[in-house]
Design a protein that fits this description.
- This protein has one domain: Immunoglobulin-like (Sandwich), CATH 2.60.40.
- Helix content is about 15%, strand content about 35%.
- The protein is α+β, with helices and mostly antiparallel strands and about 200 residues long.
- It starts with a helix and ends in a 10-residue tail after the last strand.
- Strand 1 and strand 2 form a beta hairpin.
- Strands 4, 5, 6, 7, 9, 10 and 11 form a 7-stranded mixed beta sheet that branches. A 4-stranded antiparallel beta sheet has the order 1-2-3-8, with no helix packed on it.
């Protein structure tokens, strides 16, 4: 009887383990439902990103760049730019006038997606991407590089947080992956597309 009760408790805990969140950027960003899978020579990565707790001035921005890291090997994934309300106005005005954005992202100068930090709208999105698989990625960690804009004379601080330790591919698959994913894509809520001319995304 005791053994049966113990097994029942484990079954109840499984959904909680799958949904376990990982904090980033001083706890202001939550990452859940991390999942990884291989399809041929393609590595599929998916995660839920929640920035409801982001404390950022309206005239500043934040760039998120996920990347794979294993020893000296690293591979940057498409980045996301989150603008405050005032910063978004400047960004849109610059795009209309055809000028260069003043967003600073040392790893990737052109973000794949631009989001507005709007408290009246959903501040969470699903990040999906497919990249060519390399052997070293089998034991890589999934990291998140967060870079502040350095606006208003402030120093641009950067943060590197480990989102998943040792994704262990191809031997292990983390539960939760949508098996139908077979192309490179990013999906999100309340999005504003950036330049996608040279990318291979499907919305």
């Amino acid at each position: 009887m005791k053994r049966k009760t113990f097994c029942s408790v484990l079954l109840l805990l499984l959904p909680l383990l799958t949904l376990c969140s990982q904090e980033a950027y001083m706890g202001q960003i939550q990452i859940t439902r991390r999942s990884f899978s291989l399809s041929g020579s393609q590595l599929h990565i998916q995660m839920e990103v929640n920035y409801e707790g982001l404390q950022m001035p309206s005239d500043e921005s934040l760039t998120l760049t996920p990347f794979l890291l294993a020893g000296e090997q690293s591979f940057d994934l498409p980045s996301i730019l989150i603008n405050g309300a005032e910063k978004q106005k400047v960004y849109e005005r610059t795009r209309v006038l055809g000028g260069a954005s003043d967003a600073r992202n040392g790893r990737n100068s052109t973000p794949s997606v631009v989001l507005k930090n709007d408290r009246k709208a959903s501040r969470r999105f699903t990040y999906k991407v497919t990249v060519p698989f390399r052997e070293w990625m089998a034991q890589a960690d999934l990291m998140l590089h967060t870079e502040e804009c350095g606006c208003n004379g402030r120093e641009a601080a950067t943060y590197d947080d480990r989102i998943a330790s040792g994704i262990l591919l191809p031997e292990v698959e983390v539960p939760g992956l949508e098996k139908s994913v077979d192309v490179r894509c990013l999906s999100w809520v309340n999005f504003i597309p950036a330049s996608l001319e040279s990318a291979d995304y499907r919305l």
